[in-house]
Every structure is written in structure tokens, then in C-alpha cells.
Amino acid sequence: MQFLKMSPTVLHTSMLLLVLLMSSFGATISAHRVYAQNSNTGLEKTTNVTLSNGKSVPIKYNISTGKLLSLVLDKDKSSLIAVVSAPSDKGNLTLEVPRDVVDTKKQGNADAQFTVHVDGKDATFRETSNNKITRTLSIDFNKDARVIEIIGTQSTVQ
User: Fold this and answer.
1) Is the Cα torsion angle 132, 140, 40, 33 positive or negative in sign?
2) Phi-psi map region of 13: left, alpha, beta (phi>0 left; psi -120 to 50 alpha)
3) Looking at residues 47-72, what average pLDDT do you find?
4) Partner of 128 at 20 to 30 A CA spacing, among 50, 94, 110, 152?
5) Could you tell me the CA-to-CA distances from 100 to 36, 146, 156 in Å, in that order?
6) What three-state secondary structure class fits 19?
7) Would you state the pLDDT for residue 58?
């Protein structure tokens, strides 16, 4: 018996589609545990991105309305995908993104601006801080938003 083989990109896309379908029907998604944690950056919560090798990378965040249901790294596309529930009002998701998870650079290795989409459309966002290890993004989203994608140019996490 031979099993169906999928490329990592097709597998990631399939997993994201499944998560989106489940969240749109009100199902509870527990792909990543979300828990409160004190921090010096003002970001009060932490979730983990699980890499293909099983390693887990913590990501600090705040969300003003709704919940962060999951966070998925698509390393092949250098993008970080957040699945949110925003049932009642406009909101804001602030993420402290480790540079090795997703970063964006221009010629000469200088920082470039990320591309951010909410439900496939260009989003309003600000980079509120950065250092050698992380870049913090504040992303606005509207009622009923589901998928926030942060697109960079590189992902070097191992």
C-alpha cells in the first residue's frame, strides 16, 4: 500500500484551510496552547509556533478584541499566519515576531517593511519597535476577520 505524498506547501495550505473551515463553523481550535505570561515588553500573552522538527518557539502578543486561535509558520513562504476570532468589533493584534521566525530585508541587509494581509487584503499596521532579536507589529482588523498573514522575505529558524 502506498500513501499519498504531499509537498510541505500543499500540506501547510491544507492545514490552514482545515483550520479556517473549522473556525468559520464555530469549532474550538486547540492547535496551540495560549496562556498568560508577564513580560517587560507590555505584551501580556504568549503562544507557541511549533516547527516541523517539533521545536516550539514562543511568540508574545496582545489582542484587543476576540481571540488568537492559532499561529502557523509557513517557512517556505516566509510568512506567519494568525487565525483569529473577532466576533463583535474592530480589533488589534500586536505580535512580537522573532527575526529568525520571519523577517524582511532589502538590499544591504537593511530592514524592509513587512507585507500584512487580513483575510487576503492589505492591512493597516505599524511596526512599533524592533531590536536585533524581534520586530513588534501592531495590526488592525475588522469585525469577523479570520486570517492575518505577516509576509517577510526570510525565515531562518531551525
Assistant:
1) negative
2) alpha
3) 91
4) 50
5) 23, 25, 5
6) helix
7) 95
d(CA 82, CA 116): 11
Give the cell for residue 94: 500586536
Query: Cβ atoms within 10 A of the Cβ of 27, count?
Result: 11
Contact 123, 141 (CB under 8 A): yes
Contact between 72 and 16 (Cβ < 8 Å): yes
The model's pTM: 0.74
Spatial neighbors of 97 by CB under 8 A, at least 6 apart, are 59, 80, 103, 134, 135, 136, 137, 150
Residue 130 CB partners (closer than 8 Å, separation 6+): 111, 136
Say how far apart CA 53 and CA 119 lie, in whole Å: 28
The shares of helix, strand and coil residues in the chain, as percent rounded to the nearest 5, are 15, 45, 40
